[in-house]
Amino acid sequence: MNSELSKADRTRQFIIETTAGVFNTKGYAGTSIADLTEATRLTKGSIYGNFDNKEAVALAAFDYNLSLVRKAVQTQMSQATTCHEQLMVYAKAYQSFNERGFPVGGCPILNTATEADDTNSLLKDRAAKAVLSWKRTIIDIIKKGIASGEFSATAEPESTALAMIALIEGGIMIAKVTNNPASLNKVLKTVEALVNQLAT
Description:
This protein has helices at 7-30, 33-40, 44-48, 54-77, 83-100, 108-116, 121-148, 157-178, 182-197. It is mainly alpha-helical. It has a single domain (7-197), classed as Orthogonal Bundle (Tetracycline Repressor, domain 2), CATH 1.10.357. α1 crosses α6 (108-116). The longest helix is centred in the last third of the chain and has 28 residues, at 121-148. It is elongated. It starts with 6 loop residues before the first helix and ends with a helix. It comes from Spirosoma radiotolerans.
């Protein structure tokens, strides 16, 4: 936690970091204020003195969990020197998550999108923005690869981006529901094949 933050900001950050795994595991509906007070060892008044309501905590917790995933991906992305390597980062990063663990509770995008669906518009919107941002990033990398001649001019950036995201998130879902992490690794091999096809 950043020691340069004010006491109020440190408390807010503590609440976010401490409850992030709770929300990501139990979901918004399944997380009670008692869960939050138990996790933080703070009173209900202390929590709601820093956040307007449980939904506000859940939104901040989602952002925090997503930042953990993005940071891990970006760390590997910064070491990639080609567009091909940058796209392959997604397969490698999610394989690492599969082996070493996601943020507590699993993939925040999948968890939030599945639970929120039509029951919580704000959380659904957060998950949607995360997916669309991810899609734009992949599209930009593919377009850059096409422009540099690294990828075929016939490559389809949007279709490929959507396919990659669907494969990864679908693979996570299958691995989780069947309790078989190896399923995700097999799906990630298909992601790698999809990336390799861009150069042909």
